[in-house]
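Sample 3 of the quickstart, ligand cobalt (II) ion:
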Amino acid sequence: MKIVSAEVIITCPGRNFVTLKIRTEDGVHGLGDATLNGRELAVASYLRDHVCPMLIGRDASRIEDTWQLLYKGAYWRRGPVTMSAIGAVDMALWDILGKSTGMPLYKLLGGASRTGVMVYGHATGRDIPEALDEFARYAEAGYQAIRIQSGVPNMRSVYGVSKGGGTYEPATKGRVDEQYWSTEKYLDFAPKLFEAVRERFGFDHHLLHDAHHRLTPIEAARLGKAVEPYRLFWIEDPTPAENQAAFRLIRQHTVTPIAVGEIFNSIWDCKQLIEEQLIDYIRATLTHAGGITHLKRIADLASLYQVRTGCHGASDLSPVCMGAALHFDLAIPNFGVQEYMGYPEEALEVFPHAWTKDGGLMHPGEAPGHGVEIDEKLAARYPYDPAYLPVARLDDGTLWNW
Ligand code: EZ4
Ligand code: CO
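Result:
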């Protein structure tokens, strides 16, 4: 199972994706997702210039040892660029192991712990009526879990809502989009949004919401308390989480469940939040948090504290990550929910996949490995197109958390 080549494929079928392809001497190949939205080429270079040469000649089945080599051997530990690169290698090696043993990845991880993977979709609208109609669309499509985001009156822009209506894509081509934020307006508005959902649809659906790091801990506590009557499944990223102890304050005030971690890249980012039971769902992902080997470690730590997973599944994680995540979700004991934002049609064509979707339940399929491939000829038709994530500013111009 010697590795003979490792190459990076960059493509933009609707949005940018970075894919690592590792081949062995037996002609088996594996794919890993290395997409870091807005900083794609940094990971591509980290892989091409530093990691790929180290992989040649190594035994592809030594997955744990390769992980340790790339983590400890770099000397410079952690960070999103390093961990996305390691994540891509790890995913590709698990894919190779699956293909060379003829087993779908979830079986290598211990087999199915459930019949399907509950995913949540994004209902977004420029105002409450539009957001509710979107919610209805997801409910009719069979989703049990739905995230809702809505424009806030008198606020020029808001996270998660596309300007012209239609599909939301976080990155903007060629420039950094400046958005605006007012915590006061948002906090007065948000409870009304959830009240409207429960009034129209009742309590049958899991209701999710993303505050996208915008609040201070005491503001987050106020929001959590105010929305308790609407029994949310979670509030996501209520406050930036570099300071993990900040979540103690939120916890002291509210029983609204909390999900954090889509920008985490290591178990050390999660440790205090999990051990002190300051969160209910951990959102770290395969790509950004060191692949299957490392996310399994995070999930196992979380399981000791009844914290469940809610992996980030935005459209900026490639279908390769999504396919692998569905195997992971199917297998682990403490799965909570999986985000599925969906993909542009071109992206689904470039990445043929074995996964299936039935309403709000997904299954990774039975193909060996993670079941996602890349059509390289088609991928070559969509060259890299630089795009950036936006920033948010307060009304007086102060740069805020986006
Ligand atoms: O803003 O993935 O829950 N999902 C999210 C995403 C993130 C993007 C950032 O690249 O918060 O929409
Ligand atoms: Co989020």
